[in-house]
């Protein structure tokens, strides 16, 4: 595919290099001052045959060299052809510069000796959003000079010595949106961050940034929040409403995964940034907020108070908003990778981390509920009398703890015994099970005696604790309800017979409540036992040995549930005319090892056309779509993707720079050889049936594009060219002449596309309102 590129286009750090797709790192060197054209301008002119019609184009001939920026210098020639008088001129100028420098340093030194003048700093109270996105220009057939969108280069602050610059983005599942009246509690992990109104539904989004990398006590010198628009299809540019960006403290934004819309909306905001209007919002447009000194001080105080995260909420202001806008979360399949960013310039951490604040608490006995109506009336009258005479009761503080009627652990029992002057409570050391265990215990005691001293001798009058068996937890809701009904029936029978309530026998002081532990199920066979043993060994190596069984454990063996009824078998293939709700796959035991003959030559893919993810089969000859009810069919077909001639396979492995690259792996020799050396990550390899090419996806151009590489790595060719769209998951046809893949181009939905092996003839196979992805052409 032939590309036409303007000769004045180059990279910011090297004007002699050009990328094959529009990117923000390109610069225009046609004028005396270097310009930074935005993506839309590059697509319209720089990467088009109409680049000569660009108002900034200087017609210096097709072979005119690129004008370098002022900060760039070409390498000097080894031969010095300067005249002799030029050297004397430079020598004189150098002497003048040195003399001027000395005079300036003397003046500065005298000014430094003067007493400093104390000034009062001005603290800004709000943050002003800065639109860092390119200026949108309406496309016209004949561009007019002065209306071309040129991105402004914002200066990058240089951190002071000892400071560090951090760029924080939300982790997976820490960003999402909520909607009023939604049956689903939240949409964490979605690609869109919706805020606004759509009909009668109100939308808001929340983003959580992890602050664990920010040192407590360090000064936050600069803080900037950046949000990039993703979807404005339901947005009205003339919307009169406002959009709010609010900062919420960690203490007020707990448990986002369990919060619904009402809970997310009612979280109190500590800081509200400057509101956004409809003119500030557009897809792929960045909204930037610089936090002032007051806001940075609040954030630093949050860290001092022990906070490890910051939550940002996006929501409409009131009911004036009439449309819906979405920013990019940086997560999910629809994201363009422009995740929310919190840029921090943090000063050096203090030599000693400040201590965490101690939270006060109060131990109080709560008032028991009244036994009957008369007691309730008497308590209300007493409270009224107290309020009228001495004032209202002191409200219960937030950090209040109620004492338990019995000790919760052995340590509490031992403390109570010490306070009451009773014999100490100690757990007997178990008798060693064998000689090896006895030897190990003796060696451990010797080591302790040599390092920290001998063990405290056991007192002669100690007693052992008594374990009280708690009521086993109910296996299900029905069991719990039956227990409640049984206790209620017993109490009602005693009340009818006027039986006295028996006084419960007090527990002895050395009683400890037992801990219920469910027994580990016995392995069903030798293979399961070996796997469980290996898993325990891996856990011990990575996270440490498992917590030993407590001394007061009460082991409960679970009762196996009754066997489920045998489901009615369903057919392996269901035609499109017979589609219904997605059936539950029938357990067929051990799946086959070869794909069915019916799927050879067909395209298997994933789709949500039935309301949830399922596997379908497309006949490229007729266009017929068939539902596949068993997951093993797609799993077997997918194994063909990376299989090369013989036993060789295409795999994905990081190179010495940590960048994912395509490698060829020979299992017979356990040999791996690298095939790609691109700067972006490469993945999704698919080997052609004849073994001539390996198709794969790479982000080398800035987006996800499809390439092909020869098995020896000598030839690499890019097959697709997009602006912001992406192409993924290539798969070869059985005859090796075509490649099927999926893309979000044109409609924004995931659709199946097909092209020739050289990248030509790209056609949309899906053309529907559903999402189709991950195709596999079975051979």
Concise overview:
The chain has 779 residues and is α+β, with helices and mostly antiparallel strands.
Structure, explained:
With 779 residues, the protein is α+β, with helices and mostly antiparallel strands. Among the domains are: 73 residues, no CATH class; 210 residues, Jelly Rolls, CATH 2.60.120; 36 residues, no CATH class; 209 residues, Neuraminidase (6 Propeller), CATH 2.120.10. It has ten helices and 37 strands. The strands form nine sheets. Strands 3, 4, 5, 6, 7, 8, 9, 10, 11, 12, 13, 14 and 15 form a 13-stranded antiparallel β-sheet that branches. A hairpin with a 7-residue loop joins strand 34 and strand 35. It is globular, with a radius of gyration of 36 Å. The chain starts with 8 loop residues before the first strand and ends with a strand. About 9% of the residues have low confidence.
Radius of gyration from the CA trace?
A: 36 Å
Supply the CATH class of the domain at 129-139 and 148-346. Answer: Mainly Beta
Q: What is the β-strand count?
A: 37
| Shape field | globular
Major β-sheet, in short? 13 strands, antiparallel
Q: How would you state the average pLDDT, rounded?
A: 80
Would you spell out the secondary-structure blueprint of this structure?
Elements (H helix, E strand, L loop, with lengths): L8 E3 L14 E3 L10 H8 L37 H30 L15 E3 L32 E5 L6 E5 L7 E2 L3 E7 L2 E10 L9 E12 L11 E6 L12 H6 L4 E2 L13 E5 L2 H12 L4 E8 L7 E5 L12 E6 L15 E2 L9 H17 L10 E2 L8 H11 L14 H17 L14 E3 L8 H20 L14 E3 L1 E4 L7 H17 L10 E4 L16 E3 L27 E5 L6 E5 L6 E4 L2 H8 L10 E6 L5 E7 L4 E4 L7 E6 L6 E5 L6 E5 L6 E3 L8 E6 L5 E6 L7 E6 L6 E2 L7 E6 L2
Parallel strand pairs: 16-17, 18-19, 20-21
Antiparallel strand pairs: 1-2, 3-12, 4-15, 5-6, 5-8, 7-8, 7-14, 8-13, 9-12, 9-14, 9-15, 10-11, 10-13, 22-25, 23-24, 23-37, 24-25, 26-27, 27-28, 29-30, 30-31, 31-32, 33-34, 34-35, 35-36
